[in-house]
Amino acid sequence: MVAIAQAEAGGFQLKELSADSLATSLAGQSAKASDASTVFSNPAGMTRLQGHHLSATTSGVMPYASFSGGATRNGAPIAGSIGGDAIGDGLVGGGYGVYSFSNDLKFGVAVVSPFGLRSKYASDFVGRYQALDSSLMNFQVQPTIAYRINSALSVGLGIDISYTTAKLGTAIDLPALTGGLIRSDAYGQLSGDSTNVGFNVGVLYEFSPTTRIGLDYRSRISTNLKGDANFVSPVPLAALPAALRAALTNTSGSAKLTLPDVASLGFYHEVTPDFALMAEVQWTNWSLFKELRIKYGDGRPDSVTAENWRDGWFFSVGGNYKFTQQFAGQLGIGYEIAPVTDTVRTARIPDADRLWTSAGISYEFTPNSKINLSYAHLFGVGSNNISHVTPATPSLPITYRTTGSYNADADIISLGYSVKF
Fold it and tell me: How many domains does the chain have?
C-alpha cells in the first residue's frame, strides 16, 4: 500500500479509507454505521451491525501537483527545472472486521493507513536544497470494543497500534560550498521508523431509528523516528575540505513527529425509507506541527525547518438514494481548510484548501453482500503561493528561498466490498 497525501488530504492525513464514505465526501461517516468500516470512523457504530461483518476498500489515487516559479541562493537565481509532477499515482485502503458477542456487545479490528505522504521532484529541481524527495507511511492496527448502553446510546473504545516509517531527502549545495570547485550536488537522506500506541473513543446517539449523530475522537500519537542519516557525494570524501567531509559522513539520525488528534461529528437522517441526508465536520490538531527537527548522532548541528501549521477543518454534506432494494446512488460535496497557508508553505508539503466533489453507487448481490464503487475529484482552491526561506546558519552560511505557486488536484476511484454472516 502506497500512501500519498499532498494532493488529496489536509496536511499528510489520508481520508479515503472507505468506498462507502468517499461516495458522500465523507458526510455522515461518524454516524451512519452502514458497514464494518465504522470500526475506524466511529467504533460505537458497531452496535448497529447485526451478526459478523467484514469490509475492505482499495482506492486508486491519481494526483497532480506542479510548481511554477524559481529559487535563489543568497539572492542569486538557482539553475534548474520546476521539478515536474511531484506526486505519483498510488493506492490506499483499509480492512475492517466486526464480531458480535451479542446485540449489545461488539468487537472490531481495523487495519488502515490514516497518514502518509510521498513526493519526488526531478534531481535538478530549483528548490532541491530545501526538499527533493519525501515519503511517510503510517500503518495502524486498531482492536476495538463497543457496547450499547440503552436503546439510544452506544459507546466504543479502541487502541491504535501505530507503525510509522519516513524518508526525507535533500540536495546539498557542493557547488556553492566549494566555491565552484565541485559542480555537482551531494545528496542527504534521513530514514527512520517508530512504533507507538494511541487510543480512540466514539459515541453514537440515536434519536430515532432514522436519525442519529456520532462523535469520534482519535488521540495524537507521538513518534520518535530513529534511523540513519546517509549521504552521497559526487567525489571521494577525501577530496573535500575537513568540514565538508564531516558533514557528509554517514551517522545515525532521528526526528520527532506528532501525528495529530482528530475529532469528527457526523449526522445521519432518513428523510424517507429511500432517501437519506448526511453531514460531517472534522477537526485535526495540526497546530501541533511547529517544526521539523532532525538530530544527528555524531553531534553536528540540528537541521530545522519551521512549519507553524494551523488546525485543519473539513466540512461535507451528502445524500443516499435507493433506486431499488438492491441498487443505490450517492452524492457528496465537501470543503477542506488546509493547515498550511502562504506564509508557511514548503516544497516538501505544498498543501492547500480543497473542494471535494464525489459520487458513488452501491449494489447488494444478496442481503448479506454489497459492493461500493465511488469517484471523487478534489480541486485545489484559494491561494497556493510559496515563499519559503531557509536562513543561513554557522554550519551552512547560505540563505535559500523558493518562490512561486503550486497547482494541485486529484482524482480518486474507490472500490469496496462488504459481507455479513
Answer: 1
